[in-house]
C-alpha cells in the first residue's frame, strides 16, 4: 500500500439478530441460482425420502432410551401414571411425522404399543436372568442391567420390534441404529427373537431382518446371521433371507451363518470362526479345522542374540 493511501474498509459479515449465526457475503446471482436449483424437486431418492418423513434422530433416541428406562427400572405406580402418558404423547408426535401405511392409525399404534409394555418387561427380565446364569463374570443383576451393552441393545430391539410389528415405518430402524452406534450390536427390528436371549460381549454381532431365533440362544461377539448378497437385492425384499436358529443353540465368536433356508437345529453348538450356508441337524457340534501351526525351537545362540524376523507369506 502506497504512502498516504487508506486501506479499503473490510465489509463486516452480517449477524442475524437474536441468533449466533454469521452470514458471509455471497453474490446475489450465485445465491439465487443455488436456491433455485436446491428448491427444485428432482424426483430422486432424496426427494422421495423427504416426502416419506425424516424424523429427528435425537428425539427418536431420547424417546427410546426413556421408554427403555421405564420398562427396566420404573415400578412406582405414581411415576408410571405420570410417565406413560408422556411417552404416549411423544410417540404420537413422532408417528405424525412419518407416512404411515394404509390402515395404520397413529392413535391405535400408541395404544397397542402401551399394551405390549408388560410383555416387553417380562422378556427383558428373562434376558437379564439368562445373562446372569450364563456369564460367570457377572456379579449382580444390577451390574448386568446398567453395564452390559447386550442388554441395552436387546432392550431397544424389543421395543423397536413391537413398533415394527405394528407396521410403523422408519422409527424402529432408527432406534435399532441408535443401539448399534452405542453398542456395536446390530439387530434389525424385524428379526424374531425368542425368550432368554443372551449376547456375551457383543461387539460386531449382526442379526438380519428375517432372522428367526428360538428360546435360550446364546451368541458371542462377531457373529453374523446374514443373507447372501445377490446382485439385485430389491427382488428379495420381503422374502426370508436370513437363517433360523432353533432353541438352545450356542454360537461362538466369529461365526457367519447365511441364507434364508439355513436352519441350525436345536441344541447345537457352533464353534468359533465357522462359516455356514447349509443347515445343521439338531444336537450337532460344528467346528472349523484349526490352522496348521509351525513351532520351531530356537537354539541357545539365537535366544541369546535374537535376529530380525523374516516372514515368508
Descriptive notes:
- The chain is of the alpha/beta class and 313 residues long.
- Among the domains are: 55-184, serine acetyltransferase, domain 1, CATH 1.10.3130.10; 191-229 and 238-287, 3 Solenoid (UDP N-Acetylglucosamine Acyltransferase, domain 1).
- It is 41% helix and 12% strand.
- It is built from nine helices and 16 strands.
- The chain has helices at 28-39, 45-52, 57-73, 77-95, 106-134, 141-147, 149-165, 171-183, 300-304, and strands spanning 14-15, 22-23, 186-187, 192-193, 198-200, 206-207, 212-213, 218-220, 224-226, 244-245, 250-251, 256-258, 263-264, 269-270, 275-276, 285-286.
- The strands form four sheets. Strands 3-6-9-12-15 form a five-stranded parallel beta sheet. A five-stranded parallel beta sheet has the order 5-8-11-14-16.
- Helix 3 packs antiparallel against helix 4, helix 3 packs across helix 7 (149-165) and helix 3 (57-73) crosses helix 8 (171-183).
- The termini are far apart.
- The model is unreliable at 5-17 (pLDDT under 50).
CATH superfamily of the domain at 55-184: serine acetyltransferase, domain 1
Note the main sheet.
5 strands, parallel
**H/I helix tally:** 9
Highest CATH level, the class of the domain at 55-184: Mainly Alpha
> What gap, in angstroms, lies between the N and C termini?
65 Å
Question: Total number of β-strand segments?
Answer: 16
The CATH topology of the domain at 55-184 is given as: serine acetyltransferase, domain 1
Name of the CATH architecture of the domain at 55-184: Orthogonal Bundle
Computed over alpha carbons, the radius of gyration is 27 Å
Fraction in helix:
40-55%
Strand order of the largest sheet: 3-6-9-12-15
How much of the sequence is in beta strands?
A: 5-15%
